[in-house]
Amino acid sequence: MLDKSSLDAVAAEPLVQADRAATTWKIVSWNLLRRTGAAVGDLAALIEQERPDLLLMQEATRSIGALRERVGGVYAWAQLPNRIHGLAMWSPTPWASPPAVVPLPAGAMFERVSQVLDLGAFGVANVHLSHGQVLNRRQLQRVIAALPERAAILGDYNIVGPALMPGFRDVGPRASTHAMARMVPLRLDRCLVRGLACHAHAVLPRGPSDHRPIVVHLRPAPEASAPRRLRGMAAAIARLRREGGRAGAGP
User: Fold this and answer.
1) pLDDT at 225
2) In the predicted model, what is the mean pLDDT of residues 196-220?
3) What CA dihedral angle connects 216, 197, 149 and 137, to 10 degrees?
4) Cα distances (angstroms) measured from residue 220 to each of 120, 197, 226
5) In 10 A of CB 94, how many CB atoms?
6) How far apart are CA 216 and CA 145, in angstroms?
7) I need a labelling partner for 100 at 20 to 30 A (CA). Which of 60, 123, 215, 246 fits?
Protein backbone atom coordinates (compact mmCIF):
# COMPACT_ATOMS: atom_id res chain seq x y z
CA MET A 1 0.00 0.00 0.00
CA LEU A 2 1.11 3.57 -0.55
CA ASP A 3 2.01 5.70 2.43
CA LYS A 4 0.87 9.31 2.36
CA SER A 5 4.17 10.65 0.97
CA SER A 6 4.17 8.13 -1.88
CA LEU A 7 0.52 8.85 -2.66
CA ASP A 8 1.26 12.57 -2.81
CA ALA A 9 4.17 11.88 -5.15
CA VAL A 10 2.12 9.83 -7.61
CA ALA A 11 -1.15 11.71 -7.40
CA ALA A 12 -0.18 14.71 -9.49
CA GLU A 13 -2.66 16.64 -11.58
CA PRO A 14 -3.51 14.29 -14.50
CA LEU A 15 -3.38 15.22 -18.13
CA VAL A 16 -6.62 15.52 -20.05
CA GLN A 17 -8.04 12.05 -20.58
CA ALA A 18 -7.69 10.37 -23.95
CA ASP A 19 -10.51 11.07 -26.40
CA ARG A 20 -11.45 7.59 -27.59
CA ALA A 21 -13.85 8.92 -30.25
CA ALA A 22 -10.90 10.72 -31.84
CA THR A 23 -8.78 7.52 -31.65
CA THR A 24 -6.31 9.01 -29.22
CA TRP A 25 -4.50 6.69 -26.84
CA LYS A 26 -3.11 7.77 -23.50
CA ILE A 27 -0.07 5.62 -22.74
CA VAL A 28 1.99 5.60 -19.54
CA SER A 29 5.39 3.90 -19.24
CA TRP A 30 7.21 3.28 -15.94
CA ASN A 31 10.34 1.42 -14.87
CA LEU A 32 9.18 0.08 -11.51
CA LEU A 33 12.57 -0.80 -9.96
CA ARG A 34 12.31 -4.53 -9.21
CA ARG A 35 11.60 -5.70 -5.65
CA THR A 36 12.29 -2.41 -3.86
CA GLY A 37 10.40 0.04 -6.09
CA ALA A 38 6.79 0.51 -7.16
CA ALA A 39 4.37 -2.23 -6.08
CA VAL A 40 0.79 -3.11 -6.99
CA GLY A 41 -0.64 -0.42 -4.69
CA ASP A 42 1.47 2.26 -6.36
CA LEU A 43 0.34 1.12 -9.81
CA ALA A 44 -3.31 1.06 -8.73
CA ALA A 45 -2.96 4.67 -7.50
CA LEU A 46 -1.30 5.68 -10.76
CA ILE A 47 -4.06 4.05 -12.82
CA GLU A 48 -6.78 5.71 -10.74
CA GLN A 49 -5.11 9.11 -11.14
CA GLU A 50 -4.11 8.99 -14.83
CA ARG A 51 -6.72 6.60 -16.35
CA PRO A 52 -4.37 5.39 -19.12
CA ASP A 53 -5.54 3.38 -22.10
CA LEU A 54 -2.31 1.40 -21.86
CA LEU A 55 0.25 1.06 -19.07
CA LEU A 56 3.71 -0.25 -19.92
CA MET A 57 6.03 -1.46 -17.16
CA GLN A 58 9.69 -2.39 -17.01
CA GLU A 59 11.39 -4.35 -14.20
CA ALA A 60 8.04 -5.90 -13.28
CA THR A 61 8.30 -8.98 -11.06
CA ARG A 62 5.83 -11.87 -10.93
CA SER A 63 4.04 -10.23 -7.99
CA ILE A 64 2.90 -7.33 -10.21
CA GLY A 65 0.47 -9.80 -11.81
CA ALA A 66 -1.84 -9.15 -8.85
CA LEU A 67 -2.64 -5.80 -10.48
CA ARG A 68 -5.41 -7.41 -12.52
CA GLU A 69 -7.16 -8.64 -9.38
CA ARG A 70 -6.77 -5.18 -7.85
CA VAL A 71 -8.05 -2.99 -10.71
CA GLY A 72 -9.43 -5.39 -13.36
CA GLY A 73 -8.46 -5.10 -17.01
CA VAL A 74 -6.03 -7.32 -18.89
CA TYR A 75 -2.38 -7.97 -18.06
CA ALA A 76 0.56 -9.63 -19.81
CA TRP A 77 4.03 -10.33 -18.38
CA ALA A 78 7.16 -11.28 -20.33
CA GLN A 79 9.93 -12.43 -18.00
CA LEU A 80 13.49 -11.71 -19.10
CA PRO A 81 15.52 -14.93 -19.48
CA ASN A 82 17.14 -15.96 -16.16
CA ARG A 83 15.93 -12.81 -14.40
CA ILE A 84 13.35 -12.21 -11.67
CA HIS A 85 11.77 -9.35 -13.60
CA GLY A 86 10.61 -8.47 -17.08
CA LEU A 87 8.21 -6.36 -19.11
CA ALA A 88 4.49 -6.00 -18.47
CA MET A 89 1.46 -4.40 -20.11
CA TRP A 90 -1.91 -3.52 -18.61
CA SER A 91 -5.06 -2.19 -20.25
CA PRO A 92 -8.57 -1.53 -18.91
CA THR A 93 -10.07 -3.15 -22.05
CA PRO A 94 -9.30 -6.50 -23.70
CA TRP A 95 -6.84 -6.79 -26.58
CA ALA A 96 -7.72 -8.47 -29.87
CA SER A 97 -4.65 -10.65 -29.26
CA PRO A 98 -2.03 -10.70 -26.48
CA PRO A 99 1.29 -8.93 -27.01
CA ALA A 100 3.99 -10.83 -28.88
CA VAL A 101 7.36 -11.42 -27.22
CA VAL A 102 10.28 -10.45 -29.49
CA PRO A 103 13.80 -11.67 -28.56
CA LEU A 104 16.49 -8.99 -28.85
CA PRO A 105 20.24 -9.20 -29.52
CA ALA A 106 21.87 -10.38 -26.28
CA GLY A 107 24.66 -8.70 -24.39
CA ALA A 108 27.56 -10.32 -22.57
CA MET A 109 25.55 -10.68 -19.35
CA PHE A 110 21.80 -10.56 -20.02
CA GLU A 111 19.27 -11.50 -22.66
CA ARG A 112 16.47 -9.07 -23.42
CA VAL A 113 13.04 -9.21 -25.02
CA SER A 114 10.43 -6.70 -26.13
CA GLN A 115 6.64 -6.83 -25.94
CA VAL A 116 4.84 -5.80 -29.13
CA LEU A 117 1.08 -5.14 -29.04
CA ASP A 118 -1.19 -4.61 -32.04
CA LEU A 119 -3.74 -1.91 -31.19
CA GLY A 120 -5.29 -2.03 -34.65
CA ALA A 121 -4.57 1.58 -35.55
CA PHE A 122 -0.87 1.16 -34.71
CA GLY A 123 1.59 -1.09 -32.92
CA VAL A 124 3.20 -0.43 -29.53
CA ALA A 125 6.50 -1.87 -28.32
CA ASN A 126 7.47 -1.99 -24.64
CA VAL A 127 11.26 -2.01 -24.21
CA HIS A 128 13.98 -2.13 -21.57
CA LEU A 129 17.18 -1.93 -23.59
CA SER A 130 20.74 -2.77 -22.56
CA HIS A 131 23.24 -0.21 -21.27
CA GLY A 132 25.73 -0.73 -24.09
CA GLN A 133 25.35 2.24 -26.44
CA VAL A 134 25.93 0.17 -29.59
CA LEU A 135 23.99 -2.86 -28.39
CA ASN A 136 20.89 -0.92 -27.30
CA ARG A 137 20.63 0.69 -30.74
CA ARG A 138 20.93 -2.76 -32.38
CA GLN A 139 18.15 -3.95 -30.08
CA LEU A 140 16.04 -0.97 -31.09
CA GLN A 141 16.50 -1.87 -34.77
CA ARG A 142 15.29 -5.41 -34.02
CA VAL A 143 12.18 -3.99 -32.33
CA ILE A 144 11.48 -1.76 -35.34
CA ALA A 145 11.66 -4.78 -37.65
CA ALA A 146 8.75 -6.34 -35.71
CA LEU A 147 6.50 -3.27 -35.91
CA PRO A 148 3.88 -2.15 -38.47
CA GLU A 149 4.18 1.08 -40.45
CA ARG A 150 2.45 3.11 -37.72
CA ALA A 151 4.16 2.40 -34.44
CA ALA A 152 5.33 3.68 -31.05
CA ILE A 153 8.24 2.42 -28.94
CA LEU A 154 8.15 3.32 -25.25
CA GLY A 155 10.15 2.32 -22.23
CA ASP A 156 13.56 2.51 -20.62
CA TYR A 157 15.98 3.00 -23.53
CA ASN A 158 19.18 3.33 -21.47
CA ILE A 159 20.34 5.43 -24.42
CA VAL A 160 22.49 8.52 -23.91
CA GLY A 161 22.06 11.05 -26.71
CA PRO A 162 19.68 10.80 -29.67
CA ALA A 163 18.54 7.36 -30.84
CA LEU A 164 18.53 8.41 -34.54
CA MET A 165 16.29 5.67 -35.93
CA PRO A 166 15.34 6.47 -39.57
CA GLY A 167 11.63 7.25 -39.99
CA PHE A 168 11.03 7.68 -36.25
CA ARG A 169 10.62 10.88 -34.22
CA ASP A 170 11.33 11.32 -30.53
CA VAL A 171 8.08 12.81 -29.20
CA GLY A 172 8.36 12.01 -25.51
CA PRO A 173 8.94 14.58 -22.77
CA ARG A 174 12.40 16.16 -22.67
CA ALA A 175 12.75 16.32 -18.89
CA SER A 176 15.09 13.90 -17.12
CA THR A 177 13.48 10.68 -15.87
CA HIS A 178 16.32 9.11 -13.88
CA ALA A 179 19.21 10.31 -11.74
CA MET A 180 22.34 8.15 -12.04
CA ALA A 181 23.81 7.67 -8.56
CA ARG A 182 21.03 10.08 -7.47
CA MET A 183 23.10 12.93 -8.92
CA VAL A 184 23.38 12.92 -12.73
CA PRO A 185 20.01 13.57 -14.43
CA LEU A 186 19.36 11.41 -17.51
CA ARG A 187 16.44 11.14 -19.96
CA LEU A 188 16.36 7.35 -20.24
CA ASP A 189 12.60 6.86 -20.62
CA ARG A 190 11.48 7.80 -24.12
CA CYS A 191 8.88 7.49 -26.84
CA LEU A 192 9.75 7.14 -30.54
CA VAL A 193 6.92 7.14 -33.09
CA ARG A 194 6.40 6.59 -36.82
CA GLY A 195 3.18 7.65 -38.52
CA LEU A 196 1.76 9.01 -35.26
CA ALA A 197 1.19 12.45 -33.75
CA CYS A 198 1.78 13.23 -30.07
CA HIS A 199 -0.74 15.75 -28.72
CA ALA A 200 0.51 15.92 -25.12
CA HIS A 201 3.28 14.49 -22.98
CA ALA A 202 4.58 14.79 -19.44
CA VAL A 203 6.95 13.35 -16.87
CA LEU A 204 5.09 12.29 -13.73
CA PRO A 205 6.35 12.31 -10.12
CA ARG A 206 8.85 9.53 -9.33
CA GLY A 207 7.05 7.80 -6.45
CA PRO A 208 8.95 4.82 -4.93
CA SER A 209 10.89 3.92 -8.11
CA ASP A 210 14.22 5.34 -9.28
CA HIS A 211 12.56 6.29 -12.60
CA ARG A 212 9.77 8.78 -13.23
CA PRO A 213 6.83 7.60 -15.35
CA ILE A 214 6.25 9.25 -18.71
CA VAL A 215 2.87 9.78 -20.34
CA VAL A 216 2.04 10.50 -23.99
CA HIS A 217 -1.18 11.05 -25.95
CA LEU A 218 -0.86 9.46 -29.39
CA ARG A 219 -3.07 9.25 -32.43
CA PRO A 220 -2.48 8.27 -36.07
CA ALA A 221 -1.05 11.14 -38.10
CA PRO A 222 -2.96 12.24 -41.21
CA GLU A 223 -2.13 9.64 -43.81
CA ALA A 224 -1.42 12.06 -46.65
CA SER A 225 0.71 14.56 -44.72
CA ALA A 226 4.14 12.94 -45.03
CA PRO A 227 3.74 11.73 -48.65
CA ARG A 228 2.55 15.20 -49.70
CA ARG A 229 5.66 16.83 -48.25
CA LEU A 230 7.88 14.29 -49.94
CA ARG A 231 6.16 14.75 -53.31
CA GLY A 232 6.46 18.53 -52.98
CA MET A 233 10.17 18.27 -52.15
CA ALA A 234 10.79 15.91 -55.09
CA ALA A 235 8.95 18.25 -57.46
CA ALA A 236 10.98 21.24 -56.22
CA ILE A 237 14.26 19.38 -56.75
CA ALA A 238 13.23 18.28 -60.25
CA ARG A 239 12.25 21.86 -61.13
CA LEU A 240 15.60 23.22 -59.93
CA ARG A 241 17.43 20.60 -61.95
CA ARG A 242 15.48 21.48 -65.10
CA GLU A 243 16.17 25.18 -64.60
CA GLY A 244 19.84 24.47 -63.99
CA GLY A 245 20.03 22.38 -67.14
CA ARG A 246 18.46 25.14 -69.25
CA ALA A 247 20.85 27.72 -67.81
CA GLY A 248 23.86 25.53 -68.52
CA ALA A 249 22.82 24.89 -72.13
CA GLY A 250 23.51 28.53 -73.12
CA PRO A 251 22.20 30.31 -76.26
Assistant:
1) 43
2) 96
3) -50
4) 11, 6, 12
5) 9
6) 23
7) 215
